[in-house]
Amino acid sequence: MKKAILFTAAIAMILSMASCGKKAQEPVAPGVPEYTVVEAPQVDLSEFPVDEDGYIVLFDGSSTKGWRGYGKENLPSRWTIEDGCLKFSGTGTGEGQTGEGGDVIFAHQFKNFTLEMDWKISKGGNSGIFYLAKEVTTKDENGNEGYEPIYISCPEYQVLDNANHPDALLGVDGNRMSASLYDMIPAVPQNQNPYGEWNKCKILVYKGTVVHFQNDEKVLEYHLWTPQWTEMLQNSKFSEKNWPLAFVLLNNCGGENHEGYIGMQDHGDDVWYRNIRIKVME
Question: Residue 55: which H helix or E strand, with range?
Fold first, then answer.
């Protein structure tokens, strides 16, 4: 635990030195590849409707305004509107994303909020909901710059067909089943509706406290930027040993301002999202 606390302090000090601008070049910790956090233009939230509950409507079922691909300027063609839903049409390639696919984000960074949406997955399907995400690039050995996966910078609310996708049997104690904090905390109780049926997601993020809800029940709670958060990372696939860059980014997810994008995952399977709305808190 002492090691985790010291590492957390060191990472916080390193990241506090980051410069600003369209692309903020980040100093790196020993053993971590040099990386860049891309700061792209954000949409104006005042251009989006507010519903009777005080939530900003991010997707109303008729327009994809504000949505684009992760690391892209436009929305990939496999993300379309179908029957009032934002649908990803699967490729059957799992995480082997094709050019017309890829993860999507809403082009505004949020800090403290309550996010709600409904989701429906295909048989054997896999997807995920991201929050506090950043767009991160690294360079290969030839100096070519490319985007790292979105999930190495942010927490993931798992979207899964528990009954038919093998990920439900992996991880520890069901921490890869739907509504779980992927690979870290299982959703309890596990009250998922089966594939082809709608499930309700709610994610609350407030000053480091995060709560996941599934179908109107609280299923987990945890606290970012704490020694306990660092310890969870060390016991996951994103540990300092297994994935040093992911460990650094997740240990300080949201960056210096503790804010980031909302996003959804292309994992190669058909998935539908609707009623996407967010309430911003101070």
Answer: none
